């Protein structure tokens, strides 16, 4: 979106209709309450009540439109308008050589922003979103050590060594996937180390390596 636009908009998509019903996950209630409260300040957000958290059979979790398409979407307006201040942002730099530190790469910046917001607990402007990602765990209670459940528990990074070996030996594609994951792990460790050293330049909010990896995921 242009820099002079104060809101981010989300329009409904036909893909949302493919969501599957499931029991409410921890953190969803806090997220939906926060989401409704954050958007209700905007007069153009009358349709926000038709947006709920959903679980999709092919693409995982996301926002689901649950209203009547004829009554709501026929108006030609965005289903929701989300204030930019509720969106974590960073800049993707294609040429990594221009970065003063690898820790300034876009994903590291977003990971730090997320951890800082989670550390604030209920004082965070995106508290509900943090609770959704942490599965209802308020890490501000013990921000120095607490690590929330993985947001992608089935990704290769969380596989055992034996599982990775079987995937590597299964095919050329499997070998390539494991190699990509191993390369990513090295890059993430380098970024964390760049954040932690030297000590005098360390971010005022210190996070463990495990917390950083959770946020990167």
Could you list the spans in which at least 5 consecutive residues all have pLDDT below 50? 1-23, 199-204
Number of helices: 7
Structural class assignment: alpha+beta
Strand segment tally: 5
Query: What is the residue-averaged pLDDT?
Result: 78
In which order are the strands of the major sheet placed? 2-3-4
Distance between the termini: 25 Å
How are the SSEs ordered, and which strands pair?
Layout: E1 7-10, E2 19-20, H1 28-39, E3 51-56, E4 60-65, H2 69-72, E5 80-83, H3 106-120, H4 127-133, H5 161-170, H6 172-196, H7 209-216
Antiparallel strand pairs: 1-5, 2-3, 3-4
Brief description of this entry?
By secondary structure, the chain is α+β, with helices and mostly antiparallel strands. The chain is built from seven helices and five strands; from the N terminus they run E-E-H-E-E-H-E-H-H-H-H-H.
Features:
two-stranded antiparallel ribbon, about 10% strand, globular, alpha+beta, about 220 residues, 3-stranded antiparallel beta sheet, disordered N terminus, about 35% helix
Explain this structure to me?
- The protein is α+β, with helices and mostly antiparallel strands and 217 residues long.
- It has helices at residues 28-39, 69-72, 106-120, 127-133, 161-170, 172-196, 209-216, and strands at residues 7-10, 19-20, 51-56, 60-65, 80-83.
- The strands form 2 sheets. Strands 2-3-4 form a 3-stranded antiparallel beta sheet, covered by helices on one side. It has a two-stranded antiparallel sheet with strand order 1-5.
- α3 packs across α7 and α5 packs across α6 (172-196).
- The longest helix has 25 residues, at 172-196.
- The chain is globular, with a radius of gyration of 20 Å.
